[in-house]
Amino acid sequence: MGVVFPLTVFYDGSCPVCAREIAHYRTLSRSDRLHFVDISAASFDAGVLGLDQSALMKAMHAQDAAGRLYLGVEAFRALWSGLPGLRYRGLSQLLGLPGLHLLAVLGYRVFARVRHWF
Q1: pTM of the model
Q2: In-domain check, residue 110
């Protein structure tokens, strides 16, 4: 995948499912490889970073140290590749396989639209 760390993960803290998942990743990440930014915080200004707030709210985004932007499933894959251990790194690689990648992308698109229902 070629992620250049540190990776900044932009997430919607007003989404209960999203906030719980990021809290879980924070407990796993014990290094400076991952930084988490709540885009629903009043102090967050997407424009300062050259990003679009409405696009950020539609899907999870991550940006690596080289400036590459990852969206949706690719953002998760980048995040998982930065976590310790094989569990999430393996999942990141598994979702890179063509058939599984397509299913994950389609599933994420549906979830992203209904995530506030949970």
Answers
A1: 0.91
A2: yes
